[in-house]
Amino acid sequence: RGWTRGLGDPAAYLAVVEGRRAALEHAPEAAPAKLVQLVEAALLLPFEAGLAMERAIYEDLVHGAEARGLRHAFLAERRAARAVAEAGTEPLPQIATVAVLGQGAQAARIARACLSAGLQVQLAEADDPARLALRARIVADYAGDVQAGRLGSGERDRALAALDSKGGLGALAEATLLIATEGDPDSLAADLARAGAEAPPELPLALAVAGGDIAEAARAYGGTGRVTGFYLPAPAHETRAVELTLPPDAGPALAPVALALARALGKATVRSDAGVVGALTGALEGALFAAAEVLALTGVGIAEIDAAVRATGLSGPFERADAGRLRPVGAPGGDSRLRARMQDAGWTGRAAGQGFYSYGPEGAPPGEAPEARRLIGALREASRVPAALAPPDPDEIRRRCLLAMANAGARLVARGAVARPSDVDVAAVQGLGLARRLGGPMAQADEIGLMHARTLMRSWTGAGDLSMAVWDPAPLFDELIRAGERFESRNDSRNDGRVV
Question: What's the pTM?
Answer without folding.
Answer: 0.90
